[in-house]
Amino acid sequence: MVALRFDYEEIDAVINARSLAIVGASAKPVKFGSLFTMSQLTYGFSGPVYLVNPGEDEIMGQKVYPDLASLPEVPELVYLTIPAHRSMDILRECAGLGVKGVIIMASGFREIGEGGEALEKEALEIARRGGFRIVGPNCFGIYNPRNRLALLPGYDFSYTPGDVAFISQSGGFSVHVGRQCKSLGIDFSAIVSFGNGADLDETDLIRYFTADPQTTCIAGYLEGTADGRQLMQALREAAACKTVVLWKVGKSESSARAVVSHTGSLAGSAEIWEGLLRQCGVIEVSGVDEMCDVLLTLKHLGRSPGRRLMLSGGGGGLGTYAADLADEAGLEVPPLAGESFSRLREILNAPGAAVGNPLDIGAPLIHLPVFEAAMREAAANASTDILVFDIALNFAFGLGGEEGLNAAMDVLIAARRDYGKPVAVVLYSRALGGEDIAFEEMQRRLQDRLLAGGVLVYPSMPRAIRALSLANS
């Protein structure tokens, strides 16, 4: 199967389409056509949205047309939410009308075997003759806050355009990453779920976002590729000017089999992929949480923020554990600079405190003026690059309540602002029962407060150390 050539303007016309038609729009619950129509109409596309279904008259108060030929204009982008076997006739209609792009959401193509592969090849031939590009099949589409294209489901995604692009062969993970990043204040230039990548594939999209002036970081979930040489070249070109973060799956025998049945991709061995990504200067991550942790770190600290950590918290075991994790991850926990050590000895003179790096303040929360003086001195310490503070909020709450927690977090925000040193807070609760839900709500409020103040937040020390290590890789 020969894909169409790379063309920036053609891809841009799809991602930044100005008019949209949804073929298979439906008012019947649980149908893809219903779910996507609800998502797109709720999110609010910036241009006209035309609904197409010969069996409907009106959906969500909007007129429904019987076919594409009945529309008042030719839409630039067409979403197909109909089954695979019914898609070919609509694709031929798209070719005759002169649309710029088609997103095929249905599965039932290459990933199911020979019959589906023949159908996918036919779709590509129609697109070639008709001069339009295909995203998919077997995908969730495009999220673009600039023109308000929505994923399925994506009605509650951020409206704020950002500088991170995320591409994904998995529709589900494109939604997971997009929604979790919204909670962390990470905004996207676009998210593209491209599924089987029959036409526009991972290489095309990486090249597109490398050239896109709105994008400074390219991230992605990848199962495999049809052309490793072309992908390597695209990754090298991208990583030479932008940060690239990839989550590659299918590196074991069993997961490689799953990849074939999911998107029909060729996965490749773990050794080949890890070597490829390392040679290209790509940050390799694993899992939604690690992807979001690294994107958050890059947003606040950029690439290579420094390996020298200043570890602090209310307990000796916390610091010892964190120091072990840092050492295993290739980070450093250097001794305090001489003057910092002396000043901290004067500040933290109460029983239970232990001055050094790690720095044990003696309890999860201490008297606020003492805490402020200690954290400002820790932030000023010249031998470290990043201050990491560990706090179990359920224990700290018992010492100072939410008011005390807010005041302590404001101290860390001020230290970040006044000294210019990156500050990260490992924020979590050990009270996890149903009766402890108030701590979950409090954790989210504190996270929002810290992130708004430019302080990184991680839910565990292993995740914090891993993200800081990867940002330095």
Describe the structure in your own words.
By secondary structure, this protein is α/β, with parallel strands linked by helices. It has 2 domains: 8-297, Succinyl-CoA synthetase domains (Rossmann fold, 3-Layer(aba) Sandwich), CATH 3.40.50; 304-471, Rossmann fold, CATH 3.40.50. It is built from 16 helices and 18 strands. It has a 7-stranded mixed sheet, sandwiched between helices. A 6-stranded mixed sheet has the order 8-10-9-11-12-13, sandwiched between helices. Strand 16 (386-392), helix 14 and strand 17 form a beta-alpha-beta unit. The longest helix is centred in the last third of the chain and has 27 residues, at 393-419. The chain is elongated, with a radius of gyration of 25 Å.
